[in-house]
Design goal:
Helices cover about 40% and strands about 15% of the residues. It is α/β, with parallel strands linked by helices and about 180 residues long.
Length: about 180
């Protein structure tokens, strides 16, 4: 969506479809352990979401609008555990949020919701902690698609959801409707 909005804002396109997806069996087979292995998952692990979403970014219409883009960068704290991706990604997420605040002159209080893509419960908590150390308490308006996509109390998904489809279905299937309705 960020690249699509830049293409539209730059006058290179009037309509761009931004889409992404992920699939549980594909990601697990390729990334962690073969499913056939039947290994136990540690509590920090996440479940790759099988899902897809697409958004049309346009120079026309009534909104909502993309007004700012802060592109993330790699921030490596040296996490090596493939079953704790939330902890591995949290430093980069926190860095992006903090750079966005600095670049725009805004704070967390300027937003109804700040949401990351697929950090899960562990990564979300770490991101909150890192950002709070820099003076921003986002505990009331921050969440993560990996936490929202599943019911962590009713579903045994350990730390929550992961994968590109996670943020795609939460944004396209849940948050977008709330934005349009002003909820």
């Amino acid at each position: 969506m960020s690249l699509a909005s830049m293409a539209v804002d730059g006058g290179y396109a009037d309509y761009v479809i931004a889409s992404t997806s992920s699939h549980f069996c594909s990601a697990e087979r390729q990334f962690r352990f073969p499913l056939e292995h039947g290994n136990q998952r540690p509590p920090t692990s996440q479940w790759t979401v099988t899902g897809a979403g697409a958004a049309v970014i346009s120079s026309k219409g009534n909104g909502p609008f993309i007004t700012h883009v802060t592109t993330g960068r790699v921030v490596d704290f040296g996490i090596k555990d493939a079953n704790n991706m939330g902890a591995a990604m949290a430093p980069a997420a926190a860095d992006t949020i903090l750079r966005h605040f600095k670049d725009t002159g805004r704070t967390n209080r300027d937003y109804d919701l700040i949401i990351t893509g697929d950090l899960g419960k562990v990564g979300m908590e770490l991101t909150l902690e890192i950002v709070k150390k820099q003076g921003f308490d986002m505990s009331t308006n921050y969440s993560d698609c990996g936490v929202k996509v599943f019911d962590l109390t009713q579903q045994d998904v350990h730390s929550g959801g992961s994968g590109c489809g996670c943020s795609a279905i939460v944004f396209c299937g849940y948050l977008y409707k709330q934005i349009v309705e002003g909820i």
